[in-house]
Amino acid sequence: NANTVTANVVTEAVGSPLTRANTQFGELGGVQGVAPANYVSTPNVVTTWPELDLRARIAINAVSGFSFFINKNNAFGFSIRYDRLLRLYVAPISGAGVSSYSTVALPASIIGVTTWFRATFDAATGDVKFFSADGSLEAPAISDYVQLGTTINNGLTDIRVDTSEFTVSANTIWYPIHGNIYRSQVYNEIDGTTPVVDFDFGDYV
């Protein structure tokens, strides 16, 4: 808002139109399976995915079903499952179905604790890794992340590229998250420094 005040007189400034390219829109439904479920939109990004590096700062208050930290509905998704398994889903360019990868189960003590969660996928090798970092950090360095479990490899695959939307906290209208998401980032390179998509709620009023 660029309005100005001079001698108690407000001059209204005309700003740029709000469009999908420069605005995030939130829908707070709160009822599973009833549209709209909780989500925040992003600009539509079409890019190639030689690698994935998905990071989210989040506090899970309860786990039921699947709670999505980030989701690109027809390409990939990162979530925590009802059994406290972090889960990465990757859809290939060709063929049917979705590949899924899981960590070892997280302890029950993770509930209610603000934590950075991270998943990486290297399409060239098929390696999948999961990490966590201290949630009190605003922007953890790569060295702050600790790998959870061992590296997983179910073989090589490519990653689908399409125009489906990115969402946070829900997969379409299903599985709303129980908790708070403070940041959610998508990189198309492992250990990247510039996200393709960055949900930073602190930048919005």
Descriptive report:
It is a single chain. With 205 residues, this protein is an all-beta fold. It contains no helices and 16 strands. It has strands at 4-6, 9-11, 26-27, 39-40, 51-62, 66-72, 76-81, 86-90, 99-102, 115-122, 127-134, 146-147, 152-153, 166-167, 178-187, 197-200. The strands form 4 sheets. Strands 5, 10, 11, 12, 13, 15 and 16 form a 7-stranded antiparallel sheet that branches. The N and C termini lie close together (11 Å).
Give the helices and strands, then pairings.
Layout: E1 4-6, E2 9-11, E3 26-27, E4 39-40, E5 51-62, E6 66-72, E7 76-81, E8 86-90, E9 99-102, E10 115-122, E11 127-134, E12 146-147, E13 152-153, E14 166-167, E15 178-187, E16 197-200
Antiparallel strand pairs: 1-2, 3-4, 5-10, 5-15, 6-7, 6-14, 7-8, 8-9, 10-11, 11-12, 11-13, 15-16
**Biggest β-sheet, characterized?**
7 strands, antiparallel
- Tell me, briefly, the overall form: globular
Q: Report the end-to-end length measured between terminal Cα atoms.
A: 11 Å
Class by helix and strand content?
A: mainly beta
Estimated radius of gyration:
18 Å
Strand tally, please? Answer: 16
Mean pLDDT score: 81
Q: H/E series, N to C?
A: EEEEEEEEEEEEEEEE
**Helix amount, in percent?**
under 10%
Name the poorly predicted regions: none
Q: Count every helix, treating DSSP H or I runs of 4 or more residues as helices.
A: 0
Taken as a percent bin, the fraction of beta residues is: 35-45%
